[in-house]
Amino acid sequence: MATPQTVVFDTNLFIRIFLAQSPEALRYRQRVRKRFREVRCAVVLHELLRGDKGRAAGQDYRPQSRARSLYLAAPAVVETPCLEDWQVAGYALQQLRLNVVSRRKMTNDALIAALCARKNFLLVSADNDFEKLARARSLRGLQWMTWEEFVRSVLKLRANAI
């Protein structure tokens, strides 16, 4: 039996799909778990604990302790960026020649992208920052797709808003 592809969801998708209680979100979760090995990223856990992504997105954001327990719930495997990922993320942000504010804003996304590129994980996001990051030479191996592409082409479902 072939090993399923490993997928990582960024923070905004974890909030929209894994914390949501709607029947549609449940259907997405079931389809993902059948077809993929899901790995979670410690950077996403950090963003969940800060709580700002959910509030900024206008989501019905759960208390941080609930987000943490759901994020770490079995059978989740949590990967942490290593020193090499920090270096690659820094190089990527330099290569894109972003201003200081944009570099600060994209640091966490660059860390997630560097981890995914090194481990050959598919990164799925609703955030267009990864499109910019994928152009950096140091993140050449990054495999990523938007949530809409993932739902339509991989899960074979209609990409309705959750």
The CATH class designation is Alpha Beta
CATH superfamily: 5'-nuclease
**In total, how many beta strands?**
5
- Helix fraction by DSSP (H/I, runs of at least 4): 55-70%
**Biggest sheet character:** 5 strands, parallel
Task: Name the quaternary structure.
Answer: single chain
If strands are numbered along the chain, what order do they take across the biggest sheet? 3-2-1-4-5
Which labels suit this protein?
162 residues, alpha/beta, Rossmann fold, 9 helices, 5 strands, 56% helix, 12% strand
Protein described:
The protein is of the alpha/beta class. The chain has one domain (6-154): Rossmann fold, CATH 3.40.50. 56% of the residues lie in helices and 12% in strands. The protein has nine helices and five strands, in the order βααβαααβααβαβα. The protein has helices at residues 11-18, 23-35, 42-50, 52-56, 64-72, 83-95, 100-119, 129-133, 147-154, and strands at residues 6-9, 37-41, 77-79, 122-125, 143-146. The chain has a five-stranded parallel β-sheet with strand order 3-2-1-4-5, sandwiched between helices. Helix 3 (42-50) packs antiparallel against helix 5 (64-72) and helix 6 packs across helix 7 (100-119). The chain starts with 5 loop residues before the first strand and ends in an 8-residue tail after the last helix.
